[in-house]
Write a structure and sequence with these properties.
Length: 335
C-alpha cells in the first residue's frame, strides 16, 4: 500500500482527522483558492479516467427486509416493494463482476442482509468466483453464533456493524426493537472465531445528541473486538428525511458555488433486490432508475445514456437535473 493510501485510510478511519478534513475541505478560503481549485480539478479528472471502465464498488441489496425501526433510517419514508434477491439474479451478477475481481462487493442496501437466509451461500459463491472483497453492513441483531460461523467459513472479507450507543439506554433510544446486549455478544463471538483476522470488523456510530458524549465509552467497550470504530455524522438523504433538532452534519457546510461533481456517479453501482439500478446510494426509492439488471448488463447500465447525462450535468455544475441532486448535501471527497 502506498504512503498516500495509508494516510488516506487512517484519516477516513479515525474521528478527529475525519472531522478536521471535513472542516478544512469546506472552508471558502480553501475552496476559493486558485491553486487548490486547479489541483482539485486535476485530481477529479485523473480519478474519473481510472474509474470509468467498471465501478470500483457494487452494492447488491441481498435483502430489502429489515427487523429494526431505527431513528434516522430512510425506511420510515421508503415506498418501494420489499423482498430478497433471488439466487438466479445474484449469480448472474457475480458472473459479470468476477471479470473485475478487485471490485469491492457489498451485499447491502436498504434492508438487513441477515434477513436473507442464503446470505452465507451468496458470500461463498462470490468468494469462489474470485472476488477479493466481499462485505456487508448490518445491525448485528441476527448475527447468531450459527450465522457467524457460516459467514466465517464462507470467506467473508469484512463486516460493518452499526452500534449507536455504549449503553442499553442510549442504544435502545436510537435503535428500538433491537437488544444491545445481544448485538454486543454476537460481535464478541464473531471476533473470537475469526480466521487470520477475517472478516475485518468495523463498528459504525452515527453521532446524535443522545450518544455524542459516549465516544470514549464506545472505544473502551469495543477494544479487542472491533478492528475499526468510525464515528459518522448523519445526513438528510438528499432532503428526503428530516433530521431532528440538534443533529449536526458536515454535509450541509459546503457552499453551493464550490460544489464538486458527485463521486458516486463514477465509482459505485447499487443494485436493488429486484434488479433495479437507482441513480445512486441516496436514491432509496429508485426515483431515478438507470436500468434493470434483469434486462441489461452492469456494463450496459454503467456506460448507458441515462447515467452519462447525469455525469455531464455534474461536470458542468448543473445540479438541478433532478431533485435528488438539487437537494443532496453529500460532500464528495475526491482526494
Amino acid at each position: 500500500m502506498l504512503i498516500y493510501e495509508k494516510i488516506h485510510w487512517w484519516a477516513r478511519s479515525h474521528y478527529i482527522p475525519r472531522e478536521f478534513a471535513y472542516f478544512m475541505l469546506t472552508r471558502p478560503a480553501v475552496l476559493g483558492n486558485y491553486l487548490y481549485r486547479r489541483l482539485h480539478q486535476c485530481r477529479i479528472e485523473n480519478r474519473i479516467r481510472s474509474m470509468l471502465k467498471f465501478p470500483h464498488t457494487i452494492a447488491i441489496e441481498s435483502s430489502a427486509l429489515c427487523n429494526a425501526n431505527c431513528l434516522l433510517c430512510t425506511r420510515k419514508v421508503m415506498k418501494r416493494k420489499l423482498g430478497v434477491m433471488s439466487n438466479k439474479l445474484y449469480r448472474s451478477l457475480i458472473e459479470q463482476i468476477k471479470q473485475h475481481p478487485r471490485t469491492r462487493l457489498y451485499l447491502s442496501g436498504f434492508g438487513e442482509p441477515l434477513m436473507d437466509k442464503n446470505l452465507a451461500d451468496k458470500v461463498a459463491f462470490a468468494k469462489n468466483a474470485g472476488i477479493e472483497y466481499v462485505g456487508f453492513f448490518t445491525n448485528g441483531s441476527l448475527l447468531t453464533p450459527k450465522r457467524a460461523l457460516e459467514l466465517v467459513e464462507a470467506g467473508l472479507t469484512a463486516i460493518d456493524v452499526s452500534i449507536d450507543g455504549a449503553t442499553p439506554e442510549t442504544y435502545n433510544a436510537i435503535r428500538p426493537n433491537l437488544d444491545f446486549d445481544v448485538v454486543i455478544n454476537n460481535l464478541r463471538y464473531l471476533s473470537s472465531i475469526r480466521r487470520q483476522g477475517k472478516p475485518m470488523i468495523t463498528v459504525d456510530v452515527i453521532l446524535t445528541p443522545q450518544n455524542e458524549r459516549e465516544k470514549r465509552s464506545m472505544k473502551k467497550l469495543l477494544q479487542g473486538i472491533a478492528d475499526k470504530l468510525i464515528f459518522r455524522r448523519p445526513e438528510s438523504w438528499a432532503g428526503q428525511i428530516t433530521l431532528p433538532n440538534g443533529i449536526k452534519t458536515p454535509h450541509s457546510a459546503i457552499l453551493p458555488s464550490y460544489r464538486s461533481p458527485c463521486i458516486h456517479l463514477w465509482s459505485q453501482v447499487n443494485i436493488y433486490w429486484d434488479g433495479t439500478v437507482p441513480l445512486c446510494c441516496r436514491d432509496f426509492d429508485a426515483k431515478v432508475p438507470l436500468g434493470n439488471s434483469t434486462k441489461q448488463s452492469i456494463i450496459e447500465i454503467w456506460h448507458g445514456e441515462i447515467i452519462n447525462q447525469f455525469r455531464e450535468a455534474h461536470l458542468e455544475g448543473r445540479f438541478q437535473a433532478t431533485p435528488l441532486c438539487r437537494d443532496c448535501q453529500y460532500f464528495s471527497i475526491w482526494w
